[in-house]
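Dock fe (ii) ion; give full complex structure.
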Amino acid sequence: MPTKNLLFVDDEKMVLDGLRRALRPMRKQINFHFALSGKDALEIMDDRDIHVVISDMRMPGMDGAALLQETKKRHPETIRIVLTGQADDDATYRAVCVAHQFLMKPCEPSVLKTVIKRACMLHELMTHPMLKKAVSALDSLLSLPSIYVQIQEKVNDPESSVEDIGKLIEKDLGMSAKVLQLVNSAFFGHYKKIECPSKAVHLLGLNVIKSLVLTLKVFSGYEGTEMPPLFLEKLWHHSFETAIFAQKITETLTEDRELSDSAFTSGLLHDLGKLVLASNMPSKYQKTIQMASKNKKELRKAEFRVFEASHAEIGGYLVGIWGLPGDVVEALTFHHRPHQYPGKEFSIPAIIACADMIAHELSPEECIGAIPSIQESNLKAIDAADKLHEWRSLCTEIKERGIE
Ligand SMILES: [Fe+2]
Ligand SMILES: [Fe+2]
């Protein structure tokens, strides 16, 4: 991997010195840069390619949120991480729309090293510069118009409970993804790997959710986009079905609750890359969809022709820079090529691939272009050839009983 440039910004020299010492062993792979203010940081970034910036929030002059906002504008492809001492600080709050990840001070050197290694690796994986820029600069993900309106009403209603709002957020892919991003980061002091949207909403609490919706406007409505609402409705339905199927399939293989939860979240988010493309490049994506439908091609193949990457890599990159758990990142990235996933043992990407295919087979009207299929040899490679029949019956039974 070529050497990466990483910039730390903190107004306390002692903090920077501590980081310099802690990260010394990584000097061969990464050039570390240090800045004592937002102004100095911008000068460094204008001067050389900085791949990852990790900034304190409370700083005199330009604070961390303002710095990350400016970074997003000037250098959209840079991965932006917050390292803060105060989770409920105003600047941290304002950083919700511009930061990819939140870390809490003091941050264990081992955690910091993992985050840095991962961010550099992801930067390397997403090779297409235009796409990298588009995903890193993503403002917000589109939401279903009906859910968006209901959410606005609910947060304005003093009688609403966090459960009511959680139930609504759970019905929308973009909103679910956003709350999972926040809860899986150290945002507002939480540093747990919660992998279900309703749990995430509960943990963030009513006041935070209200601010996210009303003040920070992190959820995005549908005005002015060329994407037909039906696209989002179908995507949501397919994502939810895949999530349930993946969870139930996993339960037949293991009693490990964490794995079945992870399969659910991975299933829910597996096609998030489609939402990224629909939110970010609607007219180009709409043409791609039309091309796949007209030629009866798999959508991901049409995406490759247009964007040089499919929704799988794009979704994986986004949740990766958000700091979601590694198995979720891998499941998204490899869900159309599970046989290439390097993990040999029990593999969530393989389960998502099968759940995805079964969901499309059972609801063909929701599929754009050809149904994604897995070749027999690849099914054998992921150890699913003998089980697929049983999984199909299980999912058919679940669907007949009714999913929602
Ligand atoms: Fe997919
Ligand atoms: Fe899918």
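Observed: Residues 270-271, 311-312, 335-336, 356 surround fe (ii) ion (ligand 1) (CB under 6 Å).
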